[in-house]
Amino acid sequence: MAELMDAALMYGPGDIRFEQVPRPECPDGGFVLRVEACGLCGSDIRNLTTDSRKGDYPFIYGHEVVGRVEEVAPGVDKYRVGDMIYVYPEAHCLKCEYCRAGQSNQCIDVESYVTRPGGFAQYLSYTAKRVERGATFLVPEGVSAVHASLAEPLSSTYACAENIDIKLGDTVAILGAGPIGAFLSVLSRMRGAAKVILIDINQARLDKSAPFGVDHTIDSSVLDAVDEVMRVTNGRGVDKAISANPTTIGQQQVLEMARPGGTAVFFGGVPKGRLAQIDSNMVHYKSLWIYGHYGASSMQVQKAFELAIDPRFPAEKIISHVLPLSKINEAIELTRTGEALKVVLQPNQKEQ
Questions:
Q1: What is the DSSP string of 27-47?
Q2: CA-CA distances (angstroms) from residue 73 to 110, 138, 145, 191?
């Protein structure tokens, strides 16, 4: 009889059940990980609360994974039992034209995390393809698995800040005060931004921004975000305006609040089929740069991991809740209401 493990299975939109399923066997050429920490991401919540798999259920999500190697297939010498590793969810091929051009976030042969079971479970197996491609990083002894799990969400924000070249003296507006907004605020400050403006419709999220170097917060459920940005910049607008939320309204607003010659970033994906109404004359006459951001290159993934485990990075201020996997539904609700900034789940920790 197969050994069982705890897992959070999605049976449909909003139907997430904590139950036992067979523990995965070690695949030929692969390895099995004992999941120590798995962050709850905004995309996880979107997937878990919508018909993300078009009826193909049950399924285990979770892609911000850190764990210890539990079992290794014969002949695999890259991993040792007991190693703590962070696993980037997408293994780029590093051979296609995009990978070779430094744009591995657009890899045409990527091993995607949505095609196989994820980290909201006690154990997770990885195939020989993952061993071949890597995209795993050894977590040094003494570094918290919970802190290291921030490497995945940090990777995309690290790449964004680098790609749009946030630099000394810049003013930056960020629409969205969730974990991504927190990361972007911290990174903007680290790169020398003179002023960081954080905007959200949820005052509870804005209230958590104090440790992240934010100069101004704007509750856009009460105030007009564009008017307020223009006010605090003396009518100039900002050098970099980033829509880090899943709305088309935010995409139009970053065009309006970016200064002439500035950069407007579409960071957060919006629901499929939703189209933004863009004032193209504004783009034209203000000579705006519009940048659509997604993912990170393989080198940016590595650099983000190194930053996430650096003691100087404020991981403990971003992670507001650490919960056992059995409380995943509570974690989703805490995140949706804004009470939690970032929740990390621990599948192998029992409820107290």
A1: PTT-EEEEEEEEEPPHHHHHH
A2: 23, 18, 24, 43
Task: Please give the average per-residue pLDDT across 231-240, as a whole number.
Answer: 98
The CA–CA distances, whole Å, from 114 to 61, 147, 205, 295 equal 7, 23, 28, 15
Q: What's the whole-model pTM score?
A: 0.93
Main-chain dihedrals φ then ψ at residue 242, nearest 5 degrees: -120, 120
Share of the chain above pLDDT 90, in %: 89
Is the pLDDT at 292 greater than 70, yes or no? yes
> CB–CB of 118/100 below 8 Å?
no
Which residues does residue 11 pair with via DSSP β-bridges, in sequence order? none
Domains of the chain, start order: 4-154+296-346 (3.90.180.10), 178-291 (3.40.50.720)
Among all chains, which residue has been given the structure tokens 């509750």? 219
* pLDDT at 1 > cutoff 70: no
Strands (E), the chain: 4-12, 15-22, 31-39, 64-72, 84-87, 123-126, 136-138, 171-175, 195-200, 216-219, 238-243, 258-266, 289-292, 321-324, 343-346
Burial class of residue 214 (count of CB atoms within 10 Å of its CB; 0-12, 13-18, 19+): buried
Residues forming a β-bridge with 264: 241, 290
**Angle separating helix axes 151-163 and 298-308, nearest 10 degrees:** 120
Q: Are 323 and 343 in contact (CB under 8 A)?
A: yes
Longest pairwise C-alpha distance within the chain: 70
